[in-house]
TrEMBL record:
Compartmental location: Membrane
GO terms for cellular component: endoplasmic reticulum; membrane
Organism: Tulasnella calospora MUT 4182
Domain of life: Eukaryota
Membrane topology note: Single-pass membrane protein
Lineage, opening ranks: Eukaryota, Fungi, Dikarya, Basidiomycota, Agaricomycotina
One Pfam family recorded for the sequence: Glyco_transf_61
Entry protein name: Glycosyltransferase 61 catalytic domain-containing protein
Length: 442
């Protein structure tokens, strides 16, 4: 029998699920006890926001079906081959997988959040009793589609799970062809010990993702609050930092505050008085590292004069406070160097874009902050939601005005959102940073 271990829209953990002819088979005599198939999976086709395309992503029997134990015996008999260990299966098209943010801060963060909720005892050192996944499967991605142009996807996956094997569309189709029926008594099946299934289209059929934050990971994150350790991300973060040769004392920056600070926020709470007081203590005791991620190219960049004024304001602030300032052009650093810097960063700022994904490697301390610059009137939830999910404070900036949760603006992509004339008032941003570190802001 197939066992349902855990489910949320777009995220499901099964034990003993079968695959034959490309379809997944849930063997159960009580299908009414299970979630609707459309809440677990889809056809995995490319996603577009049109009624016609949405209809093509509704699953059919060729994607997943329920069968009874008797039907399974009739279909497969003893022609079943076990696939041992834990399998992460990402049922998304390459459209999303080949982007560093979507790959790490959506898919993998969701996979790990959902899976790690099975171990509520993960500690501040990232120690866990969970079995590492044996394989990652992308049934709808060609061999190179999961790789991003910066090659951080590969870096991440092999740093966190160095023994993991990879299967893509060609491998999945090969398994499907090997198991398909060629007449009575010939159909075979692979039986997977445990599958952690992620499906973007199914996540968008939930309540949180489409209605509140547009983050598929939220469907995995929200319902697992009670089961999850507040250090759930530490096994992943620490693996990447060790791979990047980050010094142990830097990796352990958050350990210094684990006992003093009860403020690993659930992403929605206003900080308590105790958290604010500990934050003020942190500002006196912690080394402060400001990292300004500069976007290159003509897409989504700052007005040249405003960038120069921001650098001047940040330089003056950090010189007067004796704080460390890093003006970063990521393409000029190695991957190890980028991770090493993120691991030491107190406040990361920059224009909305892929470079801010490195916030996932920052230490979780009372001062950890992300400042994201938008064209006035524009706002996207990507890095705002990710920051809060990890327990960090996020500020959205429109030139000389800032917003933070729970009073952030609604999602909007106005004209100029992707342009190269985004304004930023350097003195106001520098003042925001000073107020945050000095404890005048939560």
């Amino acid at each position: 029998m197939t066992t349902l271990v855990k489910h949320a829209p777009g995220w499901t953990i099964f034990d003993n699920v079968y695959m034959s002819g490309g379809a997944m088979f849930i063997v159960t005599d009580t299908p009414s006890d299970w979630p609707a198939i459309r809440m677990m999976t889809s056809t995995g086709l490319r996603a577009e926001n049109t009624p016609e395309n949405i209809a093509t992503r509704e699953p059919t029997d060729r994607d997943m079906r329920f069968i009874t134990m008797k039907e399974a015996e009739q279909l497969f008999g003893n022609r079943v081959w076990p696939v041992k260990g834990v399998s992460f299966l990402v049922n998304d098209p390459g459209q999303f997988v080949s982007h560093y943010y979507h790959f790490v801060a959506e898919t993998w963060m969701g996979l790990w959040r959902f899976y790690s909720s099975l171990d509520s005892d993960i500690n501040v050192y990232g120690e866990t009793k969970l079995e590492s996944p044996a394989r990652i499967i992308y049934p709808h991605c060609k061999e190179n589609e999961w790789r991003d142009y910066s090659t951080f996807n590969q870096y991440f996956m092999h740093a966190v799970f160095p023994s993991i094997s990879l299967e893509t569309q060609l491998d999945w189709e090969g398994r499907a062809k090997m198991t398909e029926s060629r007449g009575p008594g010939t159909q075979k099946a692979f039986r997977y010990d445990r599958v952690v299934l992620s499906d973007r289209s199914a996540a968008f059929r939930g309540e949180l993702c489409p209605g509140r934050n547009q983050r598929i990971v939220s469907e995995a994150w929200e319902p697992t609050r009670k089961e999850s350790s507040k250090y759930w991300w530490e096994p992943v973060r620490r693996s990447v930092l060790r791979f990047a040769r980050v010094e142990p004392k830097t990796i352990d920056a958050n350990v210094l505050w684990a006992k003093e600070w009860d403020g690993v926020s659930n992403g929605d709470e206003v900080p308590t008085e105790k958290q604010i007081e500990v934050g003020k203590t942190a500002s006196r005791r912690m080394p402060v590292v400001i990292t300004y991620v500069v976007r290159s190219g003509n897409r989504r960049s700052m007005i040249k004069e405003d960038h120069e004024a921001l650098v001047k304001s940040l330089t003056n602030l950090c010189d007067s406070k004796r704080w460390e300032l890093n003006i970063v052009h990521a393409e000029r650093l190695t991957k190890d160097e980028q991770i090493q810097l993120a691991a030491r960063t107190t406040i990361m700022l920059g224009i909305h874009g892929n470079g801010l994904t490195h916030l996932v490697w920052m230490p979780l301390t009372p001062l950890s902050t992300v400042i994201e610059i938008f064209i006035p009137g524009g706002f996207a939830k990507d890095y705002e939601w990710t920051s809060r999910a990890l327990g960090m404070r996020h500020y959205a900036v429109w030139n000389d005005t800032y917003f933070t949760h729970p009073k952030e603006p609604g999602v909007s992509l106005p004209e100029g959102f992707q342009g190269n004339q985004i304004p930023a008032h350097g003195p106001s941003i520098a003042q925001l940073i000073e107020d945050r570190i000095e404890g005048r802001l939560p």
